[in-house]
Amino acid sequence: MALRRTLLSSLAACACALALTPLAQAADYPERPIKLIVPFAPGGTTDMVARLLADRLTTVLGQSVVVENKAGAGGAIGAAAIAKSAPDGYTIGMATVSTHGANPAIHARLPYDPIKDFAPITNVMSVPSVFVVHPSVPAKTMQEFIALARKEPGKYTFASPGTASLGHANIENFMDLAGIKLLHIPYKGAGLAKTDALAGQVNSMTDNLPSTLPSIQAGQLRALAVLANQRSSVLPDVPTYAELGYPEMGDGGWFGLVAPAGTPRAIIDKLNAAAHKVMAMPDYLEKEKSVSGEAMGNTPEEFAKQIQAAIARYTKVAQRAHIRVD
Questions:
Q1: What is the distance of C-alpha 321 from the center of its chain?
Q2: Which of 75, 139, 209, 219 is surrounded by the fewest CB atoms within 10 Å?
Q3: Residues 260, 239: one domain?
Q4: 25-34, 143-152, 171-180, 196-205: the lowest-pLDDT one
Q5: Which domain holds residue 87?
Q6: Are 245 and 257 within one domain?
Q7: Are the beta carbons of 186 and 163 closer than 8 angstroms?
């Protein structure tokens, strides 16, 4: 009986120790630098948001948050790297409408599952995208552009960062809704697409507003519509797609934090709280406005629902436009 009691006591002690381990980890977390994976190249909007966040998370958490870019395959390489990392809170990453919305809807074989492989932390920022045309296009408004495209189907071209990219999916969705036909010219990245749009080699494109705004302000490109839930303060005269009669286009892009699935909830909550502190900082809010962003901030559960909604929206788009990569 004494031996049995000793064994039972030992087992109970082990069980308690195992149960308390995640709590102990969270209490001490973070004890070393944190890696923040960006699944796109440096200089893009996702990278800009990540670095803005990382600098301030470093102050809040008391440990360096180091950005690491892992670009390729429309964000799939970096997203897979996040998913396959140890679930200990020391590798987190950026999730976007591309990696956790369009990619899962369009690509049959992704090296990650956008739901099962990640633990959502919080959405940190929404950023509008903008539809632009080269000044040589004789349309000052979206209504005029639609009229031109309807009159001559297939004459006008649009550039995208690649076949089955988010930019491709968004314009395919718009063509379907507006009843127009544009000729798709795919590129290997948004930078190359924008270069030819600026040169007038292609007539139109859609891209994140922060990276396109300087060209719009310089008169090199003309903005006809923004994809957002409201007009941008930096382009107050440019209507949203919803105002133009196309609410099915959605409400723009977002950028959030995720961790690998299995990361202890206590660590997720700690990162969520830290991100919310950053989003309340005056200098963060000022910088955010400079890139036409809007602070989001929500719970892990709310962010999970946003991801599911994005997948559902782009699945419908992919089915209507017959966009599928096997």
A1: 22
A2: 219
A3: no
A4: 25-34
A5: 34-127+252-321
A6: no
A7: yes
The two three-digit tokens of residue 168, written as one number: 């491709």
The answer to whether 130 and 207 are in contact (CB under 8 A) is: yes
Measured distance CA(145)–CA(133) in Å, rounded? 9
How remote is the C-alpha of 49 from its chain's centroid?
10
- The two tokens of residue 59 are 């102050």
Listed residues 249, 282, 308: the one ending a domain: 249
Query: Encoding tokens for residue 31?
Result: 């004890």
pTM here is 0.82
Residue 104's closest CA among 94, 117, 118, 114? 114
Encode 109-132 in three state secondary structure.
Answer: CCCCCCCCCEEEEEEEEEECEEEE
User: Could you give the number of structural domains in the chain?
Assistant: 2
Q: Which tens digit of pLDDT belongs to each residue from 191-205?
A: 888 999 999 999 999
Q: Domain check: are 243 and 133 in the same one?
A: yes
Residues 105 and 119 in one domain: yes
- Which tens digits make up the pLDDT trace of 92-127? 999 999 999 999 999 888 999 999 999 999 999 988
Q: Are 44 and 74 in contact (CB under 8 A)?
A: no
